[in-house]
From TrEMBL, chain A:
<dbReference type="InterPro" id="IPR003656">
    <property type="entry name" value="Znf_BED"/>
</dbReference>
<feature type="domain" description="C2H2-type">
    <location>
        <begin position="41"/>
        <end position="69"/>
    </location>
</feature>
<dbReference type="GO" id="GO:0003677">
    <property type="term" value="F:DNA binding"/>
</dbReference>
<keyword id="KW-0863">Zinc-finger</keyword>
<feature type="compositionally biased region" description="Low complexity">
    <location>
        <begin position="179"/>
        <end position="192"/>
    </location>
</feature>
<keyword id="KW-0862">Zinc</keyword>
<keyword id="KW-0539">Nucleus</keyword>
<feature type="region of interest" description="Disordered">
    <location>
        <begin position="111"/>
        <end position="302"/>
    </location>
</feature>
<feature type="compositionally biased region" description="Low complexity">
    <location>
        <begin position="263"/>
        <end position="282"/>
    </location>
</feature>
From TrEMBL, chain B:
<dbReference type="Pfam" id="PF00400">
    <property type="entry name" value="WD40"/>
</dbReference>
<keyword id="KW-0853">WD repeat</keyword>
<dbReference type="InterPro" id="IPR015943">
    <property type="entry name" value="WD40/YVTN_repeat-like_dom_sf"/>
</dbReference>
<protein>
    <submittedName>
        <fullName>WD40-repeat-containing domain protein</fullName>
    </submittedName>
</protein>
<feature type="repeat" description="WD">
    <location>
        <begin position="262"/>
        <end position="287"/>
    </location>
</feature>
<dbReference type="InterPro" id="IPR001680">
    <property type="entry name" value="WD40_rpt"/>
</dbReference>
<feature type="repeat" description="WD">
    <location>
        <begin position="100"/>
        <end position="141"/>
    </location>
</feature>
<keyword id="KW-0677">Repeat</keyword>
<dbReference type="InterPro" id="IPR036322">
    <property type="entry name" value="WD40_repeat_dom_sf"/>
</dbReference>
Amino acid sequence: MGKKRRGPTLDELLARPWCYYCERDFDDLKILISHQKAKHFKCERCGRRLNTAGGLSVHMSQVHKEQLSAVDNALPNRQSLDVEIFGMEGVPEDIIQTHNQRVVAQFHQAEAERQAQTGNPPPGAGAGGQPAKRPKLENVSDLKKRLAEHKAKKAEALAGGSSGDVTPVGAGQTQNAGTFSQSPSTAAPSSQYTYPQPYGGAGSPYQQTASPVYQNFSPGGQSQFPPSAQYTPSGFSPQSFQGTPAQAGAAYGTPPPFPPSQQPQQQTPQTNTPPQAAAFAQRSGSLPAVPGLPQRPAVGAPQVNAYQLQQMHMGHPVPAAGAPAGAANGEKPLGAEAAPISSSVDDLISGAAKEADQAAASAAPPTEEKPTKKDKSKQSRLVYSDNETSPEEKMAKLPRYAFVPDRLGETALEEQVPAAVTGAERGPDTVFDATD
Amino acid sequence: MASNQFIVASPPTDAISALKFSPDPNSTRIVVSSWDKNVYLYELRDENGSVGEGKLLQKFEHRAPVLDVCFGATEDEIYTAGLDWDVRKIDVATSTQTVLSSHEAGVRSVVYSKEHQLVISASWDSTLHVHRVDAPESIPSIIPLPSKPFSMSLTATKLVVAMASRALHIYDLKALSLLTAQLDGTVPNKVEVEPWQRRESSLKFMTRCVACMPDDAGYASSSIEGRVAVEWFDPSPESQARKYAFKCHRQTADDVDVVYPVNTLAFHPVHGTFASGGGDGVVALWDGIAKRRIRQYQKYQSSVAAVDFSGNGKYLAIAVSPGFEDGRDDVVEGTVKIYVRELGETEAKGKGAK
């Protein structure tokens, strides 16, 4: 799939040149070198840019007769002149290692955050990467079950000997080859299980191929659950089928058992959406939203609870589907008409934040405001926190700085020029103030 | 970091309260006031005229710690303000001290306006005393303030007084001068003067320092909560819209933002950029117009009490003394230092808006 890349890969990040002195990374080596020349190897006196710290040191001593003691603008432990750095050359191995470790850690953290935020599966894995692993695990537990089913089936087939059963299964196979890997119960699928690929692709093909399946059924069935009933005659046990999507849903996390994009569209012609559909849509929180679909917010609007709203406002990781749906719904009571239509999650969230700021009536805004305020000012500690008394006043109160009024009296006689005026004015105050 | 910085010999023995360069562009003299009750006068040039180390020319003992100092009309004239409630004039040539006036509490700051020949002192008794230098016999006028003044700065035409309760008054020096000239004789010479502008500080916390731009356009103020605000005098909405504040002198330790007071500000007389010194021991140069930090110097071992640029802008003097803000009240030997940094041609020059 020609999907847009969301960010640099780990390899790309690791390959980026970075500055030994300040740990900044750059697009290419040229920029790094010019950065070093401008920030770390520039002569303070004449502005000349040298190539290395050593060069600058020599320049300083020869031209300005001064001794360079440390590299400018460098991190505290990187100011040494002993390490000869030019671009990425000369960086000690252990420092490269720690840097790489940090980049890797940061990358994974960012990745995890982004995944949590968007609810997207990790890149590269696409929709199938994670599932590829999961079904394998699942296999172990399910295999026996399926084997038992299969055996039962065989036994049944042997016992019944009806040839009618075979045809629907065969049809099902062609249609569902990779998708309902568990549903086919003939001997053929067992060979499929050995391939990881059908599973690997399970996530995406699921939607594509499964939807036609439902398209076929829903006009007849009219609701989501009947399809299983329709399948039963074809030889599947209802439990096994229903169990499959549920498990798949749980395993894949994001792709829901029922392709949602199809569902509402199918429902649109029907003016009366079945209540189950709405309820279902709400229940599966991981339902990818259908942007720009007018029906959804109307249906789902009242269903968003305060908790979801709050979560969304706090900027906590929200499943991708939950966010737009929640935002759209959250906006409704706050009176934003355009918001449900806008498709970008960011827009919605920022819009919601704005709304929240304005409307104090809603329960959400207070919960939303607090965390952002905290985020802004972190934890801060004032070194000098007395907002009423200046440090000088405090100091002046220290006994060793105390002004002795007696001495004032003595010296005042000698030095006071307008003694008649000021002396009279301050006489009593002097005694009073100096004592406290 | 280059070693274009030297330590001035024989520093004060206790915390430094103020440090001023001579406004004379050709001079390299500094006066320093200290809590050790002395005012120190240093000359940075040696006999050969080269700048380095500097030497102590004279020391003037006071009765109490000296909180502020400034040069007068010439280098031979120094004004001091101290905890002994007095405003003094020191004649360097004769080493004589004259008390100009006495407040009713410690005097926090003193400034000299050469354009109007006024010495203005601000005291914790919440008054300003305005002394007319041209008429030494006249009795200083007393101007009441709404709160205790913490810092004072002036330009050719204006006087900015930053006070407690975030109050800030801007006085028109010409008006002050005229007014004080008219008032004479009555004792005490108290006069209510309506400031040209009354403002509330843009900063939420106590104002620590205020410094005026050399081009008379505005001023910068700093607070105990690691922040600096830059504002303009012009009361028009356009000019007022330009004002801003920024955070600085903070350090993050264990996810806690440690916020230091910004003790001192000083504008560069030529480039109009300014330096800030904080309780974290850091001195930073800022371009107030382009809203950019030009550079930050390596941390000094203790709080920066005062900074000042020389008259020609070629030197930056930095007074480092233990921060009383952390509740320490003992001065460790050797922690009080005066650094003088020789600035490169463009070191303090703004890069211009990008």
